[in-house]
Amino acid sequence: MSQPSPILIAELAYPTHRGKLTALFNTSFNGSQQRGIIAAWCTFGTFKISSEWSWRIPSLLQGLMPMVQLIAIWFIPESPRWLVAHGRRDEARQILVKYHAGSDENSALVDFEMAEIEAALQFEADTANSNSWLELVRTPANRWRTLIAFIVGWFAQWNGVAIISYYLSLLLNTIGITEAKDQTLLNALLNVSNWIGAVFVGAMMVDRLGRRTLFLISTGGLFVCYVIWTTLTGLFVGADNKALGQPVVAFIFLTYFCYSIAWAPLLQAYTVEVYTFTLRGRGLSFLLTTSFSALILANQVNPIAMQTLGWKYYIFFCCLLLCLFWVIYFLFPETKGRTLEEIRDVFEKDGRSLLEEKQTHDLENGQTRGEPGKTSPKAHHIDD
């Protein structure tokens, strides 16, 4: 479910809504905020039950959302880009007319989108040597994309937040909060805070601030919060000062809030954008494989490191976050204000748009499109 969903959302979305919609998808699925809220508050309500229903009720609720999805999936249209790629141009156009133009058959936006989709698919068919996984690393542009996917996938698990996600009870035990009721309540409130950050700061600001800026704000905020949190924890453990416990809890919340600004909403949304149509599925699969591999490693390493080093293990993540900030600064390009096809120009950097290449290709092959003297509209900045 996690692989095709963000691709379908990105390729179906109205151009100026794409960033927000794909980011919102991640806040409900991969970022786990909405699921976390349901799970956290459900377990907070059932942990007092003395029978097996204390865990059976949360487990049964896991099946509710897939049931809704199974019913609703039949009403979702196919990706126009997939339809064009498989020779079903008329079906693709009708979907764009219905969902992007209010059923206006003469919409200039639909004409532009169709021309750009066809140009992109033609370009990818002409330049791809093969239809294999090796395409992810064949050209400099594709290696750049794949390196970004690796960094986003790996450091979504290795930016320090996994310590909070999976070992919150150990963290709270460290600062003297040991009651099950207090821990489950803090976990429930933490998920609400994360969701607010992911939706209202991350997803809703993705087109205003940009993807790269959100990653920098999120990672920079993580670094600052982690340094303060590490310092406070060290002082608490060293002096056994219970007064420092509350500030530590506050910075646990702030650390996860900073994470939620970008690493939750943009994990898949940004990766979907940087890859071209023919590589989008493989690129996202590579991201997920990287992320799950990092998660497996973290689940094996973090408990041992926490037991051996205690709070001093946090220093490792402080150093890691500082390096990650500068990697993002120099490596991550901005993709806001462009259609999925125009993002290709950011990576290829040859100074020519896909429509210009298509027009050249058509002229070289003696083909003409549209009315004489009429050119396709250019919209390198879709916000305009």
UniProtKB/TrEMBL annotation:
It is found in: Membrane. Belongs to the major facilitator superfamily. Sugar transporter (TC 2.A.1.1) family. Signal peptide: none annotated. The chain crosses the membrane at residues 147-168, 188-206, 213-236, 248-272, 284-301, 313-332. It is a multi-pass membrane protein. One of its GO terms (cellular component) is membrane. PANTHER family: HEXOSE TRANSPORTER PROTEIN (AFU_ORTHOLOGUE AFUA_8G04480)-RELATED (PTHR48022:SF3), PLASTIDIC GLUCOSE TRANSPORTER 4 (PTHR48022). Residues 355-384 are annotated as: Disordered. Residues 1-336 form the Major facilitator superfamily (MFS) profile domain. Keywords: Membrane, Transmembrane, Transmembrane helix, Transport. It comes from Clonostachys chloroleuca. The lineage of its organism: Eukaryota, Fungi, Dikarya, Ascomycota, Pezizomycotina. Residues 355-364 have a biased composition (Basic and acidic residues). Its main location: membrane. This is Major facilitator superfamily (MFS) profile domain-containing protein. Pfam families: Sugar_tr. GO terms for molecular function: carbohydrate:proton symporter activity.
